[in-house]
Design brief:
352 residues, mainly alpha, globular, disordered N terminus, disordered C terminus
Length: 352
């Protein structure tokens, strides 16, 4: 009864309405979607008074949680690989001037695709109710716009990301990301724990390859014509698929209450943790071997990975699991530096 009252206060509905929403969330997604669309109206009826700054901030709120682990990570990967263009067969190493000129296009590409995905994800009725408790500042629970307005914005983003990709590059990554986004959010792909990891891997692939294509090869070309790059991306996708559920340990209690099936809940906490350990150890060994960088290259991912798995196995608290998730991008970024180490060894143009 207390939970019902809290939810009622947060989304400003009557307790009976909230009970109806909670009951609907057990399977009748259509009813729940309609109910939330009715309940979550803007706080102000003066829609015309909302300035462009208001709308810009609303767009920022949709994406701010993922800027570092998606946009910045993808940009860093693109720059580091482009600096090693000869070993991928792209041509001469990209210079600083070109990096600076292409930076806006790379960031816009990543941010617009992230915005599209997050609108899909955050407009789900159950997500709105959950965000109303944990992340009330997000646009929909904060009533900065209605679900109908969010849906119109979502559809408007499709031509934006396609045109951006046609102009800058990364069209193949764009199309794959759109498909994975629909499968994950609209076709309930996220409800299967193992499929969820695979779709996360597909998204990771797109957000890494898109900026790289823009900087290294430009529009009208594809990374599929560069086997070395394809092999490297495949290895990184494997690293992502086997370890991305690191993010789920910090949310086990909430996921269990919502009956959301994640890897830790599907195979057990201990098994899920050891799956991450195996993935980190395997990729920390295979990636340096792939680039033939020797001990110096091995130490970088091995050291960051060791800190991550130690924290994951020996400190199983909510705070420790949250910190482990912060260590994950540090470890994955350490893998990004391996081509640069190869390039600096003076043997970067020799393929395996």
């Amino acid at each position: 009864m207390a939970q019902t009252t809290v939810l009622a206060c947060i989304i400003q509905t009557e307790p009976d309405q909230v009970r109806e929403i909670q009951k609907s969330s057990n399977g009748r997604h259509g009813t729940l979607r309609e109910k939330v669309a009715v309940d979550l109206q803007p706080l102000s009826d003066a829609k015309d008074s909302r300035s462009w700054l208001y709308h810009a901030y609303t767009l920022y709120l949709f994406t701010c949680n993922n800027l570092k682990d998606v946009v910045v990570l993808g940009y860093s990967f693109g720059v580091l690989c482009a600096l090693c263009s000869p070993i991928f067969g792209f041509g001469p190493s990209v210079g600083l001037l070109k990096i600076l000129c292409k930076t806006p296009e790379m960031l816009i590409w990543s941010w617009t695709h992230l915005l599209l995905f997050n609108i899909h994800n955050q407009r789900d009725p159950e997500a709105i109710l959950e965000d109303a408790i944990n992340k009330g500042w997000r646009p929909l629970p904060a009533k900065r716009l209605t679900t109908a307005e969010a849906t119109r914005l979502m559809y408007a983003m499709y031509p934006v990301v396609i045109l951006s990709s046609l102009y800058s590059g990364g069209l193949g990554s764009c199309l794959l990301e759109m498909f994975a986004c629909l499968w994950y959010n609209e076709w309930r792909g996220a409800e299967s724990p193992f499929l969820r990891n695979l779709l996360n891997g597909a998204g990771f692939l797109c957000f890494m390859s898109g900026p790289l294509e823009i900087l290294a090869i430009g529009s009208g070309s594809s990374l599929l014509g560069y086997p070395r790059a394809v092999q490297w991306l495949a290895l990184l996708v494997f690293a992502n698929i086997t370890t991305i559920h690191t993010q789920d340990f910090r949310d086990v209690v909430g996921d269990k209450l919502r009956n959301r099936r994640t890897i830790p809940l599907a195979i057990g906490d201990a098994s899920a943790r050891w799956l991450v350990v195996i993935g980190v150890i395997l990729c920390s060994c295979v990636a340096p071997a792939f680039w033939q960088v020797g001990l110096a290259g091995f130490l970088l991912p091995a050291s960051t990975g060791l800190v991550m798995v130690f924290n994951l196995l020996w400190k199983r608290t909510l705070e420790a699991d949250s910190f482990t998730w912060k260590l994950w991008p540090v470890w994955i970024t350490s893998l990004f530096f391996l081509p640069l180490i190869k390039m600096g060894s003076g043997t970067g143009t020799r393929l395996l």
